[in-house]
Design a protein that fits this description.
This protein is an all-alpha fold and 83 residues long. The chain has 4 helices and no strands. It has one domain.
Length: 83
């Protein structure tokens, strides 16, 4: 998936969540590398979705929260099988 010169996954995760802790080298690389740019974009979207789910779950009862967890597990399982 990644070329040998691409940043480590943890560096891409850091860029997706807080660019202040990432080196300029990684930032410049992601600007030029379509693969890494797509990974960072997906990581940002995932982080936003997780944040939205956490916020929404605060107002749910335990049963509803568990239903959502089960849906997420099914989606993740299906995604693992596809990719």
């Amino acid at each position: 998936m990644f070329a040998r010169h691409c940043p480590r996954v943890d560096e891409l995760k850091s860029l997706a969540t807080s660019s202040s802790r990432v080196s300029n080298r990684v930032k410049r690389h992601v600007e030029r590398c379509e693969t890494c740019n797509q990974v960072v974009t997906q990581l940002r979207q995932d982080a936003e979705l997780i944040g939205d789910l956490r916020e929404a779950s605060l107002s749910l009862d335990d049963r509803r929260r568990q239903e959502i967890v089960e849906i997420c597990r099914k989606v993740a399982s299906a995604s693992d099988r596809e990719g």
